[in-house]
Amino acid sequence: MAPFACPNCRRLVHFEARVCPSCAATLGYDPGANGFLFLADDATRWRDGAGEALDRVVCANNSDHGICNWLVPAEGAQALCRACRHNVVIPDLSLAGVARRWGRIEAAKRRMIHSLLQLGLPVETPGEAPEGRQGFVFHFLYDPAAEDGGQAQVMTGHDGGIITLNLVEDDDARRQQIREAMGEPYRTLLGHLRHEIGHHYWTRLVERDPQRLAQFRAIFGDERADYAQALAAHYMADPAQGWNDAYISFYATAHPWEDFAETFAHYLHIVDVLATGSGIGLAVRRDDDAPGDLAVTLDFDPYRAGAGQLAAAMAPLSFAMNTVNRAMGLPDCYPFHLTDAIVAKLDFVQQLTAA
After folding, report:
1. Sign of dihedral through CA atoms 100, 102, 106, 112?
2. Residue 226 counted as domain residue
3. Domain that holds residue 174
4. Whether residue 149 has pLDDT greater than 90
């Protein structure tokens, strides 16, 4: 996403900011205005950058747990914000370290919700969704059995609009073990949430639309293939050479549902990375006549761009990102290659969100 400015002093701040590091103003994100407000008038009113006072209060998860930096309309006092109102189950915060882990998961979730709102996708709880349509909720659970490599009792996944996330995914060492065991080049809290919400939007936007479903099957395959058998076969298989010609990840090869969810997540990755670069005026330039197109100026809105334009911009930008990471001795930030087949799948997702 594009970076935000402190409305009091205009310094750029991160999306998770609660206090401006420059002027020390207390900040809150207003999803309706897609910007930050600051607490003024002896901490009694929220004001925007023009000095206008707005009737806002903090999300109940801020006042109750200190966990959220989003605001809600004043008439919704003690209410949960646009992101937190999707929570149905939260972990037992009396357990040591759980509140800290939940806080990081909530931060990732707010980033994802922001992307969905910018794309204009339906962001609804089951009670808010139209009749016959599915909303989504979150179950965030702590599973101590999964610590130190133990057998997990809570599985991260999606089922009927319920997105479950095991807090063990917040542990960097444990997540790295799973990443290596599963052969995944990219595994983050934000990536998990983007993947699982992809399953939700397949159900919401594709499953009951005959035309879209036919297009989906032509591009991703027939989802009526037995899911359990497909997953079992996937976990027993070694990655076949050449899978990345048509799939964004090896896990995407398991079943058309997983292919769509992985592609949907990757679409969110791309639009947010490019929106961030655009927001800070990032450009990659070549000053010589060497062959190859490794130049880009991010002067377009990634949330409204076509898949071809997104992929073309990611090629030089990802090279630059990976070069910087390698200079720091870190793995490539973007270990993916967008082939024509993958771009066709991204195009399906982009057309779906645009509609």
Report:
1. positive
2. no
3. 82-205
4. no
